[in-house]
Fold this sequence. Notes:
alpha/beta, 35% helix, two-stranded antiparallel sheet, 18% strand
Amino acid sequence: MIIYLHGFRSAPASIKAQALRRHMLDKGLGAAFWCEQLPVSPRAAIALVEDEIARCRATRPERPPTLVGSSLGGYYATWLAERHGLAAVLVNPAVIAPLSLEAYIGPQTNLYTGETFDFTKAHIAELRTLDVPAITRPERYWLLVETGDEVLDYRDAVAKYAGARQTVLEGGDHGFSRWNDYLDEVLAFAGLVGK
C-alpha cells in the first residue's frame, strides 16, 4: 500500500498524486493507492493518516504501507515514518516547515480545489510538535529533490536525510518535474513490484 501525502495548498488532484494513481491503476495496483484531502490542521492531518495506517496494519499486517510525501507531505511522512517504523519516499520535502510556512499565515486558497482557508499561528505551533530533529534509520528513506526548487532549499533536505538513499537532480522545480521517470522505482521501493 502507498499512502500519498500531498503538500500545502495542494490536493489529491495534484499532478504527482494523479500520475502515481494512474500508473498504479495501469499496473493493476489501484487498490493499493490511498490519497485523501489532508485537513489544514497538521494535528488533524496526522490523525487522518494514522487512521489509514492502522487500517492497513489490520488488513495486511505482514505488509506495512509505504509513505510518499511531497513538500509539507514529506514533513508529515518523516514524523509518521519515525513514529510507526515505516518506509518513506520524500519528494522536495519541507524539512523546516514551521519556518518556511510562517510567511503563509493568513487567508490561503487551495491550488487545486479553489477552497479558501485560514492558516494560523496555531497551525505553525502544531507543525512544531511534529519536528523530527534527526532520522533514526536512514535506510527506510528515499529522498528525491531537484536543485531548481524555487520554494525550498534542497540542501536542507540533503543534510536532514544524510545516509538515506538520495536522488539529487540538477534543475527542475518544486513540483519535481521528473516525477514520472521514477514511478516504477517508487513502486519497487514500496515492495509492490520487483526491483
